[in-house]
Design brief:
single chain; alpha/beta; Rossmann fold; 7-stranded mixed beta sheet; 4-stranded mixed beta sheet; 9 helices; globular; disordered N terminus
């Protein structure tokens, strides 16, 4: 599959990119529209719940391809920072009988996630309206103009429930994951440290988006110490990328990720 987002003439700021998006821009927000192409073709999606490129079938093309390779024939997926559910839908497409455990702190976003699962008749997903970290409590959360980018912040305008993930999954009898997606806006290292024993024992594959140079460096160091192999997803350099996949090189041949 071609990564159309890397073709400059199709990007949102280009003339052709703008023309491609005009039909979708004219559709009212919250309309239910089928995704046009890609692995989620014909899946139902709520317009305005995320980037229009999802409806075009060109959202995070490389990440999508690699994720599907790892997700096939697995049993359990943890979607940490699930937002509207794009990766949960991808997981279900790759492993229809697999269980999905999703985590998202904003109730309005949780409602959209649930709607997407319902629209597409996905019944093997549970979403928890919490933020994940390495301790429990209620913390300030800062919203931004994009619901994707909200994060825990001492100056946040709302309060959300935060859970120590390792304790929570034990208390809830949540199945150990085969694959984890982590997009949790600054809590990456805290959660990786909290899950360290599970990572050593179960060796799930991890798709991680880091938020800041230090968090990126510390995440890489922690995973390499455990013995994970790392591959960048949004560039060719593991040190400067923002998204990468981490996996046990001995468990399965994932060398061809491009």
């Amino acid at each position: 599959m071609i990564n159309f987002r890397r073709v400059k003439i199709l990007r949102r700021k280009s003339l052709l990119g703008k023309l491609l998006r005009i039909p979708f821009d004219l559709i009212p927000a919250k309309s239910i529209i089928p995704i046009q192409r890609g692995p989620l073709k014909n899946k139902k999606w709520i317009k305005g719940s995320h980037n229009v490129s999802i409806l075009l079938g060109i959202y995070e093309s490389k990440q999508t391809q690699v994720f599907i390779k790892f997700a096939q024939n697995t049993n359990t997926f943890w979607d940490l920072g699930c937002h509207a559910g794009y990766y949960s839908l991808l997981y279900n497409s790759a492993s229809p009988t697999g269980k999905i455990f999703a985590f998202e702190p904003l109730q309005e976003t949780v409602n959209i996630y649930k709607r997407h699962m319902s629209l597409n008749k996905i019944n093997n997903s549970i979403v928890f309206p919490v933020a994940v970290s390495d301790n429990n409590g209620f913390f300030k959360f800062k919203k931004t103009s994009s619901s994707v980018a909200g994060k825990l912040d001492d100056f946040g305008e709302i309060t959300v429930k935060v859970i120590k993930l390792s304790e929570f999954v034990s208390e809830q009898n949540i199945t150990d994951p085969d694959i984890i997606k982590m997009d949790i806006e600054g809590a990456e290292v805290a959660v990786l440290n909290d899950l360290k024993l599970l990572l050593k024992r179960k060796r799930p594959s991890l798709f991680i988006s880091t938020h800041g140079a230090k968090l990126h460096h510390d995440s890489i160091a922690l995973l390499e110490e455990i013995g994970y192999h790392l591959s960048p997803l949004d560039s060719n350099d593991i040190q400067t990328c923002k998204e990468f996949v981490a996996y046990d090189a001995n468990s399965k041949d994932k060398s061809n990720l491009h």
